[in-house]
Structures
1.
Amino acid sequence: MNASSDVGHYAQRQARWHYGEAAFWLAVLACGFVFPTRYLIMTDILRLALFAMSLDLILGYAGIVSLGHAAFFGVGAYAAGLLALHGIINEPVLALIAAGLAAMVLGFATSFLVIRGVDLTRLMVTLGIALLLEALAERFSNITGGTDGLQGIEMQPILGEIPFDMFGKAGFFYSLAVLFVLFLLARRIVHSPFGLSLRAIKNNPLRAAAIGIPVNRRLIAIYTLAALYAGIAGALFTQTTAIASLDVFAFDRSADLMLVLVIGGAGYLYGGLIGAVIFRILQEVFSTITPQYWQFWIGLVLVVIVLVGRQRLHRWVLYVPNLVIKQVAGRKAVVAVPESDA
Amino acid sequence: MTIALETQNLEKTFGGLRVTRDLSLKIEQGARHALIGPNGAGKTTVINQLTGVLKPNSGRILLEGEDITDLPVHKRVLRGLSRTFQINQLYPDLTPLETIGLAVSERLGHGGDWWRRMGTRNDVNDEIADLLTRFHLLDVMNEETVTLPYGKQRLLEIAVAIAAKPRVLLLDEPAAGVPESERHDILAVVGSLPRDVTVLLIEHDMDLVFSFADRISVLVSGALLTEGPPDRVARDPQVKAVYLGEEAVNV
């Protein structure tokens, strides 16, 4: 092989599918058949995973911190609810896209505020926007239902064929399909020159500009895309639960999302998915043990993760699986280790 | 004679401090031009204005006759003005392959492409391979930049600037901090830059300046003290007094 084809080979290395990834998605799909009584919690995890993937796109790749990502989740949720309630768009998939676009418009409009300034400014601006929207939703209760939320949402069958059932089976597979499609798109994007330029901006914005990258334009683009993802996550929430209330904008929701990414790791797309699973399981386990003090334990886990270092934890947890995979698939095919580790 | 890069009456103040004073420079096409001056003379401030990181308070900057004073950093790069940094400005988590690949992609207009994977364009791959080879980085192309020895990082720093195919290249102390054993690679690379690339070199190392430059401008307290060919500048008593001091200069 000459140098050029070597370069092509290694440049695409990250973008190639690993066995571990296929195994991951098959396992998720299998869950839908193995735990038929757990659709509601599993759907909840999928929504959270999609929402976290959205934050990962801006935080893990572009380095934009946000404490107000629920703003887009909320807009998507209310948009989907209003569309269904007033029968404007009855078909769920179309409504999902429309709701996502509504959040995307908000994302684009607010991106200009967010890209200015550094981390602390961004935290405050994003937080502020989410609080603002929550207050607006409360103020215009004639549209949003105020503190009662939107009542009496009835979802039509998906694609006119598959009705939402009371066990949440349709909702689960619907959410999984949406998550998977959006994951594929995100995966494509992060391995493109555009995606790489985001990582460059996160690493060193000064140098990024000095090689000709239009830094602001790239940040606006990814922030807008992340808003679309978050909006779709919010719309899934409304569609699968048939409720939309003010807490879709809640600060807790944005803050939890940070925890999810801290647990799962940012900047390799699977962090949000794995983090969502672990976060919800921890929540379940801890609230079963100590219904009142489960947050204490979540806090403890968080402190341990940050102190020990996630990469080290990952290496310990994945030591045996990777040993096996290395035997089967050769080097480099490692599961769920952040890029910097692989 | 064609002028590649020009400043006209450039002024920059930080608070009450005038760090660039009425600076008018003309860099000829294909020149090896050095900008020297004692610490605090404002050399890096000049570079930052040339590249667009800082805006001058007044005065103009012309690249090949066109006014670029108000262009943002990335647009100047696309017009052919590229730089290296005195202190490495690289991407710690990215590999040399990715770092250079990105610069090449941007220049060829593929930087905003969000669909096609990196590594699937042969023209980009060819150029990356060529640059990695020229800068002795092929063997470390998949290592994270942060793990590379300093000399290799320095080479990468220059390679990234070259990847933008500049017509004017600003080298800000290219050999700064490089251990003696690795200096040779850097000097060879700088020396072998094609003649159609105009180079403005900011440097402390007098050996490098006098071996490389065919024209020297001396900056003192933000103002131009003198300008001329190396032998004349070296003999200039004013230059000796304010800048070189007691240091002996051998030309």
2.
Amino acid sequence: MSDQEPLLQVSHLHVTFKTHGGRVSAVRGVDFSVNRGETLAIVGESGCGKSVTSLSVMGLLPASGKITQGSIRFDHQELTRLTKKQMRRIRGVDLSMIFQDPMTSLNPTLSIGSQMTEGLVHQNKVPRSEARKRAVDMLKLVGIPNPQERMKEFPHQFSGGMRQRIVIAMALICQPKLIIADEPTTALDVTIQAQILELFGRIQRETGVAMIMITHDLGIVAKIADRIAVMYAGEIVETGNKRDIFYHSRHPYTKALLDSIVRIDLPSDELHPIEGAPPDLFSPPAGCAFSDRCPFAMEVCDHVQPPTTWLDLHHRAACWLLDKRAQAVREAVEK
Amino acid sequence: MTDSAFLEVKHLKKYFDLGHDRLLKAVDDVSLNIRKGKTLGIVGESGCGKTTFGRTVLGIYEKTGGKVVFDGKDTDAMSEKEHFQLKKRMQMIFQDPYASLNPRSTVLDLIAEPMDIHHLCKNGRDRRARVEKLLQEVGLSADFLNRYPHEFSGGQRQRIGIARALALNPEFVIADEPISALDVSVQAQVVQLLKQLQKEKGLTMMFIAHDLSMVKYISDDVAVMYLGHLVEQTSSRVLYDRPLHPYTQALLSAIPIPDPDVEEKRKRIILSGDLPSPINPPSGCVFRTRCPLAMAACASEKPSLKEVAEGHYVACHLHPSAKSGHAARMKQVFNKEENRPFQSIFPYLNHALYF
């Protein structure tokens, strides 16, 4: 197998939604890749298109949404060209997803055991007894005490943290190559979140599964990501290794985002919020989407979309300040 | 501390009767003070009773026991008229800006409503002028007067909620998770606004939140709640630097820090298990079922809130009152290596324990 090719390669992805108010361009030309066994974190505020991107990869866009351009290559296959039936064979087997709210992703009327084995029995044609054994093993892996008994119970009999563990176990049961986790800990308390993040780390070490973690919490990103993609208004503005983004970020939005968080381990007397609000995607701006809120915006930013600049092999950003012609401005900014 | 206390809460209890002889002890024997013009942050996980506590202090829920003394006056001893006046002086900012604003009212009516109830406006023009001034104070344009809540973003709605709470010129404001429904960059905007308004108006504030980093920024003092109990209270600086209660330590260590180098070196205390049910809380110390340091005494005896250092209150058997004779014995226990699992995580704990 040629492992040169990344597990997932998304190129020039455009997604638009039809609404009563008109067309919304939720995702506007997104490029990223995920290698085998690594964790990519997609960071951004709500409405920046990070969830829509992941739903497009999963083939779970609602009827009003449409991929208008671009390609999604997963494991040597072009997902955008697959039929619904073919997509269903990949989803849940090689590709699974963990949603934010564990209560809404579990069926309240089915026991945990039957929900967990459903996929195995119907998709992979595994005999029921074998499927049950694997479900018990998975529950054990995610840290549910006496799994044998608890297989018979229903979602409401579990706490929020336990339910999220079950959802994770379900996502893992078919041994996927990639898991997309969309804000998996946002609905949980911090002490439970710490347990779940620890669990993600352990699972990745033990199974080698690749992961896309979608979150707005940069603390979580610092803990579990290998690489980071920062999204703003439907575009990826900066991508790089974890340390590139945290210590050598080059896009003003990334910098502002890092600046706006309060750290509990440092004394802080001042807050640096990002003033203003993200642009309206019904009529996306002609130039850089961040130019309205950017303290360093230049004339060109309002009119022309910034090109992507590669800073090194892994680190790239889309900002006019990185253009050769902006050398003088950049020096002034960096002072 | 007591002389300048603006709001004094003594042994406040709020039990909910669930029927079948079951009682949910949402707030159990909580005592604390808030000094005038200061902000007290209340933190804890969901279900710890922090919202119920705020609501009971305001009188939205009827308390089961205890006392609330507001500006030197016991609220129980007040007449009905005084109570009505009192409500003007205490206001609340709610969590969900989507649910707390009537979708069928305009911004003008929403913000003027509290003033209408208390008959504060002389006429229509005065009413409008007051609302315009409030909108300006919270950073919104006066053009918004005739718009409806659905036309605004979450951050803007929360600003409307703040304007509504400030309409009566209150002296005391309870903000119940005012930012948890908002985006990170917008959260900072709203918190900054609250802090600025507090400074301008000399407000006394109670800031309830589960986000410990924002609480750190806005609060002078912080109280930590767990399962209806107050487990630790001290100044914000001391709490984040030298937490003493094992729960506070675990809570702080659970928060991921947005700095990969720090995050990699950090050891954390991972609490096992979930919050026990408040209907049937554990005997003795409520935290003992998840506490990595629990001892035999924790199951039999409920620790009371003691002042272990000046202005630092902790409810834990490991931290006996500075004056108590137990201190020496406890010191022996803690000098043993195996009894100090937190050592590597909180190196300062060593001297913090033995003051």
